[in-house]
């Protein structure tokens, strides 16, 4: 990174494992990180948080807190603990999600509960929900079918059919703190992650794209390693950007990070192939962006396959970016 007169403000827009990996890497760099998290998850323990507690989903926030926490005590480990028994409602739930539900009750609001949880876990940076409004995603597919809800999109019977359009219902407002973070950012990172339910889900929030247009920050897009049968079936890299163009002007993207290490772990590839999920083919050309974009191809692949947590009922990504390689690539690109 070129020498700056101040610590650079880096804003990560996303949710889930992809944003967690990016933040984990950057947390060890001299930067200020703000994570803007999607709030539309409704699968797994998030369904209980939403339906039983009447709160917005907490799993993405919990992962972000763990990524940026400087607390190395047992509290951090406890925050990631997942119950593997206890019957319906507790089995599969993380202690961190229950902790934040209790904190919202104690503090009088989910907003204050998140802030206090960040303080207790000694979060280095800021974690901000993209919106505090309650909403669901709705996907329309090319075959005319629809799926409502993030989890239903992930497991849709239309899996294998491309998504034609994604909406958020009802329309929700951009959190004022999130807008301020975007406007004041030096670097804005979009991706990696579930393309529609994490990435596009943030862009369809009212005023997000307008804020990106007005921001002084440079937008860096991190390309996914794998496509997915449920959201991006058979996608090559150019397909991701053809879809992204429906939601934001591609001219806003100044840099794209693309993995060029194809030495994927074979056991993971075999497991993915059974689900019709494959590595994303790099067919990206600069001309689709217009002038000024820089495509950076480098090794971003982790050689580790994460172990499935006991009690976790959801499918998690087995092939991931390496946080240290991401940190180096991001900082070297500016």
TrEMBL record:
CDD domains: YvcK_like
InterPro entries reported in the protein's UniProt record: CofD (IPR002882), CofD-like_dom_sf (IPR038136), Gluconeogen_factor (IPR010119)
Pfam families tied to this protein: CofD
Keywords of the record: Cytoplasm
Gene3D superfamilies: CofD-like domains
GO molecular function: LPPG:FO 2-phospho-L-lactate transferase activity
Cross-referenced PANTHER family: GLUCONEOGENESIS FACTOR-RELATED (PTHR30135:SF3), UNCHARACTERIZED PROTEIN YVCK-RELATED (PTHR30135)
NCBIfam families: CofD_related (TIGR01826)
Listed name of the protein: Gluconeogenesis factor
């Amino acid at each position: 990174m070129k020498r700056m007169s101040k610590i650079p403000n880096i804003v990560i827009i996303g949710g889930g494992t992809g944003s967690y990996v990016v933040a984990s890497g950057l947390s060890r760099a001299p930067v200020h990180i703000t994570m803007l998290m999607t709030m539309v998850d409704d699968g797994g323990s998030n369904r209980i948080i939403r339906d039983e507690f009447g709160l917005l989903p907490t799993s993405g926030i919990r992962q972000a807190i763990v990524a940026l926490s400087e607390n190395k005590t047992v509290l951090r480990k406890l925050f990631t603990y997942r119950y593997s028994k206890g019957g319906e409602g507790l089995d599969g739930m993380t202690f961190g999600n229950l902790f934040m539900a209790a904190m919202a009750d104690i503090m009088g609001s989910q907003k204050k509960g998140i802030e206090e949880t960040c303080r207790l876990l000694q979060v280095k940076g800021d974690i901000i929900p993209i919106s505090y409004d309650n909403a669901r995603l709705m996907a329309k597919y090319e075959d005319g079918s629809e799926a409502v809800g993030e989890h239903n999109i992930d497991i849709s019977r239309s899996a294998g059919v491309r998504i034609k359009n994604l909406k958020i219902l009802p329309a929700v407002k951009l959190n004022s703190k999130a807008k301020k973070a975007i406007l004041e950012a030096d670097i804005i990172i979009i991706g990696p992650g579930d393309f529609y339910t994490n990435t596009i889900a943030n862009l369809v929030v009212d005023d997000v794209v307008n804020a990106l247009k007005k921001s002084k920050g440079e937008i860096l897009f991190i390309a996914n390693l794998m496509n997915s049968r449920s959201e991006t079936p058979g996608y090559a890299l150019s397909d991701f950007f053809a879809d992204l163009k429906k939601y934001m002007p591609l001219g806003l993207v100044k840099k794209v990070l693309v993995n060029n290490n194809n030495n994927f772990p074979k056991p993971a590839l075999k497991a993915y192939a059974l689900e019709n999920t494959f590595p994303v083919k790099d067919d990206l050309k600069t001309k689709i962006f217009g002038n000024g974009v820089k495509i950076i191809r480098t090794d971003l692949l982790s050689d580790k396959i994460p172990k499935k947590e006991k009690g976790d009922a959801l499918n998690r990504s087995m092939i991931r970016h390496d946080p240290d390689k991401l940190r180096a690539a991001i900082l070297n690109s500016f």
